[in-house]
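WARN no homologs supplied; continuing
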Amino acid sequence: NQIGTTKLSYQVNEKFTSSSLFAKSTPIETDTKEKCSSFFKHMLKLTKLKNNLLLPIEGFAFYNFNNERFATIFTVLAPRNSLEEVIHKNLLSNVQKFSILIGLTIGMKYLHSKSIIHKNLKPSNIFLDKQRHPHISEYSIHPLNKTKYTPPEITNESRYSFKGDIYSYSIIAI
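OK structure emitted
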């Protein structure tokens, strides 16, 4: 299932447990030994995160399923709908919206306490379970395109910061 022109996503079954996983391939620079090592260390850090408000990363690879040099990240299959879909269908009460914002606050506080910047916080990267609890995904992965959730100070040369995550959160809250 292709998303855009540079990201690919798949639903896959883990060979030994038969559990369903979500695999997303994205162009992350791994063309040198140093970049591979940096990516590897960063992904190991992300796989160790334990928080119910984060969609856990189960594994990663340096290549996609077409044997192309696209980093592939495996997460548990996301619950139900994204926040984007639910907002579009206007399915949330004010109490549910407030509860989701509290969950996002706690999840982002956890990421920031581990010195991890999300970099791509937006409703399509937040999934809601049956009880409408948020689960944050795609943390610490550079977005390919700017959206209305991208902090205005971000250009190709600028660095992401915790402040940028707060900006993205505030746009979601509006």
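The chain has four helices and eight strands.
OK
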